[in-house]
Here is the input.
Amino acid sequence: MDSVSFLRAALQAGTPLLFATLGEILTEKAGNLNLGVEGLMLLGAVGGFAAGLATQSALVAIIVAALCGAVGGLLYAVLTVTLQANQVVTGLALTIFGTGVSGYAGRFLMGDIIPSSIRNTFRTIPIPLLSEIPFFGEIVFQQNIFVYCGIALAILMGLYFSKTKQGLNLRTVGENPSAADASGIPVTTYKYIHIIIGSAISALGGAYLSLVSVPAWQENITAGRGWIAVALVIFSMWSPYRAIFGAYLFGGLDIIGFRLQQTGFALSQHLIGMFPYLITILVLVISSIMKRRQYAPTSLGEPYFREDR
Amino acid sequence: MKNLKLSILVVLVLSLLLAACTPATVEDPGTNGEDAPEEVVVGFLYVAPVGNEGFTYSHNLGRLHVEQELGVRTIYQESVPDTAEVENVIANMVDQGANMIFGTSFGFGEYMLNVADQYPDVAFLHCSGYLDAPNMLNYFGRMYEPRFLSGLVAGMKTETNKIGYVAAYEIPEVIRGINAFTLGVQTVNPDAEVHVVWTHTWYDPINEREAALSLIDGGADVIAQHQDTAAPQQAAEERGVFAIGYHSNTADVAPGSFLTAPIWNFRPYYKEQVELFMAGEWTPENVWLGMNDGMVLLAPLSDLAPEGAQELVDEYTAKINSGEYHVFHGPLYNQAGEMVIGEGETLTDEEMLSMNYFVQGVVGRIE
Here is the structure.
């Protein structure tokens, strides 16, 4: 098994997970648990695909995909922030909504393929010099633009949380909205903005699947990746940096079975297929034992109602 | 109180969404249904959306053909799950006047059988199954014949002598296809090997693509598939290698890689069966139809196909159709090099239908 080509493919397989996870981290940092990632990804996938077909422009496809996610996020925010509906139920509804909308809209897209101008934008673009670094450079710097953006976004998000005033405010909103409110932080505005942007980022993960991975529309193209992203948020302990590692690890686990089969590796393929799920369970068990929940924003899942104080 | 109202609201929204997700039965009135001597209504159950390619798409072409040629009314329902839901869909179709039911997924079989005796006047036709009843038959195509032909093309095309095969499940139908393909490859190129990767899914474009990429990274320069989507062909296109499709002609889905594909043609069989039923002469006869009967064929070769491939394909098509050549003829060796059948023998239908070993030339394992 050629480890460079495997790891390069693992980064690509992990990129949709990375976007979905980063989006969910941003949402959860505002104290809102959004289980609708799967639905958001599907909305982004179908919106981006349709826009790409209609306009032949990669940029428009990406913008529309993000907007579709933002609309889904707005719906979720209105329900959970303003109307204070149960976040779990609303998230599940969002998943069903995204599945239904993308399934319906996708019926008109069946059989069309993404124009080559867009596929060309997402081709592998090696970064000069860096891509010649043995091993590491060959893996990380010979990728498509989406992969580079994913890494950059994770780093930017990490800096945003730790180095900016707005990031600090956001964390306060997630930890203790009453205190944030008392110190003059507009809690509702913070929640709305970060839920909407987070949802747009998650939707880009879906767009990667329909624009880059498979340049044709297929129903239910995400196949449960949104749920893995929700688990990855816990795995990465709400840190965007660790999310990079987690997403690529799971991307690799997702595709390693096919590579191992060709080496004549004696382990059952069915067992290998269980790896991502086994490790998800392991992660949840270990994080419970090690009390990793303490890394979660304290108010996660609880609606903030000013009069409740 | 507020929370209760909200919960109710959410439940209502949810149930509305769920209702919206349930696919409705689509009625498609025939061109001159009213003039038909006897009101024959034909119902089709599809396991997937029709789309523009794939297995269900091929069945739908058959349905449209019946409607056009015979002017009967047809009803169809997409995305029927392999569950007891099948019985509800059939009951619904019979209520709408259906007296012939085509079930086009293996998993529909037992549920069709369950209701077959409830509706003794309705004809049940099940694709790819093994169950029958006084008013139910099963039908399928000898896909291994065009698969062998596609193997000839792949064997001529490969330069690395490594051909990848993205396969769904370790069942006789898939194994038979891989073996027939490999025999085709080795007929023209005894040095070439067929490397198999299992995906354990019929329909998952992302995983099919990853499986194809893993084979291409391993050196394969032609990718064949037993999968429902064109993702392996698109992966081949992306990497500049070639591909053999499956189910339906996908020349325009992956124009940069498509060589040819073993495909279905249900038109003649569907027309014949409905005609027999209209004439009152329908009897449930189980069939396994080959290229001769027109149920399976090789899609036209694309411009990427190697020179001389068309002649070779024509030659073997004629030989297979005349019965002069059988794909699984002796001497036939399994992966371990043991002789399965000797010179002059051919596998029987039973032996082909229960095939659970790879022939020589296949690299891969059956678990």
